[in-house]
Write a structure and sequence with these properties.
The longest helix is centred in the last third of the chain and has 12 residues, at about 70-80. This protein has helices at about 70-80, 85-90, and strands at about 1-5, 10-15, 20-25, 30-35, 40-45, 50-55, 60-65. It is of the alpha+beta class. The chain contains 2 helices and 7 strands. It starts with a strand and ends with a helix. The protein has a single domain (about 1-90), classed as Beta Barrel (Thrombin, subunit H), CATH 2.40.10. It has a 4-stranded antiparallel β-sheet with strand order 1-2-3-4, with no helix packed on it. Strands 5-6-7 form a 3-stranded antiparallel β-sheet.
């Protein structure tokens, strides 16, 4: 289990390797289950800017999950080229 530095997000890891993100204020789960990183989770930690979540599992020493949706959208748009505008992402 890990809590973001701003106290807004709680990350919980399970014995089957699933990671769940929770919005602390609303007590609701955020998004889908993060896929199994390699067996039972050993540790979870947020980066100092809360934009990444690091996970260590029994069969995977360290994985980084990007949590900053703006950076993710920017990177996807960059990779697909001029095919999608910022307005397209909002629809």
């Amino acid at each position: 289990m890990a809590i973001s530095h701003d106290g807004a997000t709680l990350a919980i890891g399970t014995d089957d390797g699933s990671i769940y993100l929770w919005d602390v204020a609303s007590r609701r789960r955020i998004g889908a289950v993060v896929p199994d990183p390699g067996g039972a989770l050993m540790a979870l930690a947020f980066s100092s800017d809360d934009h990444n979540l690091y996970a260590s599992a029994a069969h995977m020493p360290l994985l980084r999950y990007e949590l900053d949706t703006r950076r993710i959208a920017t990177e996807v748009c960059r990779k697909v080229g001029d095919g999608l505008s910022a307005a397209d992402w909002r629809t």
